Amino acid sequence: MKGLPVLLLAEDDEDDQFLFQEALASVHSGIECIMVNNGKEAMRLLQQDVLTLPDYIFLDLNMPVMDGLDCLASLKQDPMLKDIPVIIYSTTITELILAQTRKLGVHSTFKKPDSIDSLSDFLRQYLKM
Chain-centre distance of CA 13, in angstroms? Predict the structure, then answer.
C-alpha cells in the first residue's frame, strides 16, 4: 500500500455514513472513502473497477439487497478480492456473528460506537495513523 489508504464502506444508514466520514476526516483528511448502500453495490463496484481496489472494506451486517455476511462470503470467494482486509462494522455483533464471520475469513470486527471519538480512535489504531 502506497500513500494513504482507500476504504470502501458498505452501509445503508446515512447517519452512520456521515459519522464514519467525520471520524475518518479527524484521522486524516486525505483518506478516500467510497460509500455504497449494500453488499450488492459493493460487489458490483469491486468487480467492475479492479484498477482502484480499496485497501480495506468495512461492512455493516444489516443492509437491504445483500447483507454483510453474504457480501463477506462473496468477497472471500473472489480471487481478485479475497485478500482485501474486511472489517465488520455493525451494531449487532454476537458470539454467533463472530463465529460466522471468522469462518468466512473476516479480518476484524468493530461494534458501532456511541461517539465519533471512539470511532476515530479505532480507525487511527486500525489504520496505524
Answer: 13
